[in-house]
Every structure is written in structure tokens, then in C-alpha cells.
Amino acid sequence: MSEKPVASPFLVWGLLITLALIWGSSFILIKKGLQVFSAGEVGAIRIVSAAVVLLPLALPKLKTLNKRQWKWLFISGMLGSFGPAFLFAFAQTRLESGVTGVLNALTPIFALLVGVMFFSGKLTKRDGIGITLGFTGTILLIVAGSGGDLGNFNYYAIFVILATLCYGFNLNIVKFQFSILTPKIITSISIFLISPIAVYYLFGMSDFVLKMQTEPGAGLGLFYISILGVVGTAIALIMFNRLVQLTSPVFTSFVTYLIPIVAVVWGLLDGEVLFTGHYIGIVFIIIGVAFANRRNK
H/E element holding 278? Predict the structure, then answer.
């Protein structure tokens, strides 16, 4: 059995913090892109820009795959990239970027639940406590600021919950269907397979071209979303894979706790207002994820 390569603490902590900054900043980038583009356009731009950068990794490997792998890679692309890209954008048309970043932390909890329900995983008492805390925090975030009025509940949080559910399914699919493929191949080819849909939507069904020609600030909005696709997907993936090689899954999971902090800070700096209920919900979700991720030695 091969050992993990030896790395300095400076390198592994540097990778971890950089990943948290990149992924935690993705929600404010979506917010900036939505100032010019529709939610659908933001999602499509994100996919297309990531596909362009990952194309050199995908093309040489296409002929090495069988039909079964092609099928599951397409499903993985839809659940792990396409669906969430659009769902997060739709959510942030009515949801603060900081709150969206916190709700994103539900991904490990949904990965656990999907594994138990569909992939013969086991649920421990600690897992149950974590799930309960996580969903309690979710409810608090949804109702925070509503003043008790059901009509003011922010139902757009459901889009984020659906996105994290997609992530949960995708993580289990990757685990059980692609044991012989590397993460780089899985991500590059899965995004390559779904990119034609994004291209068709962007240039054939949206006003993207017209906005680029006539809308003030369109170039800057395109820059924000392209950075999200290129840095937040392609480059961050390579960094994440390197971190997994150098450390343990437990250490790598720390990024889940740091992303909400970065997202909330960006939101506050951009003038977003959070109520007491938001902060209580944030604490519940992070503690819940910590419980669900923790395993006995």
C-alpha cells in the first residue's frame, strides 16, 4: 500500500484556506453576475467557462471510456455541476449570498442520507444528531426575518437545498461507480458531456449575446461568472485533489466549515443584513455538519 506524500503543514493549510476562500467567494460572484445576467445565463456561463478550461484534460480520455461510464459520467455532470449551477443562481435572485453559502454546508449531510437510503450506508446515533441539528438550522435560516409571517418565508432556500441534495447524490455516485477513474477525469469529462446543453441554452435560448452587445457592465458580469467557472471549478478541483492526496478525509472536510464563514463575511462586506435567527441557524448547521462528519477511530 502506497503512503501519502510528505508535505509541510504550510502547504496543506495553505491549500485548505485557499480552497475555502475560492469556494466561499463563489456566492458573491454569483450575486455580481446576477446584476446583469439572468439566473439561467449565470448557470450556463459557469458551465461553459469550466468546460473550456477542462477540455484539454477531457479530450485525450474520451476514447478510453465504455458506454456504462459515459452514462454515469453524464448523470454525474448533471447532478454535480449542471443542476447546482442553475439552482444556486435561481436561489440568489431572492436569497442573500451569505445565507446561500451557509446552506451549502448541508452537502455532507445529504451525502450521508443518500448513502443510507440508496447505497446501503449505515446511520449512527451521532449521524442522527448531526442531521437533526443541520435541518433545524436550515429551518431557522428560512424563517429568519419573516417576523412570524408564513407569507414572508424565503422559499428560495429550497433551490439551495435541492442543489446540495444533487451534490449528495453525485458524491455517492462518484464513490460507487467510478472506483477506477481519477477525480480529474471524472470532473473534466462529466462537465464536457453536459457543456453542449449549456452552450445551446446560452446562445440559442437566452439573451446573452444581446446583453453582451448592449448591456452596460456585461463584460464585468461575464468576468465574475467566468472566474467562478474557471477558478471555482477547474483550478479548485486540482487543488482539492492535491489536498486529498496529502492529507486525510477528516482534514479535507474542514473546508466545509470554513466556506460558510467566508460567504457570510463577503455578504456583510457587500451590505447584506443578517438577523439574529440567521446567526443561530448558521451555528446549528455548522455544529450539525461537524457531528455528521465525525467518525469513531
Answer: helix 276-293
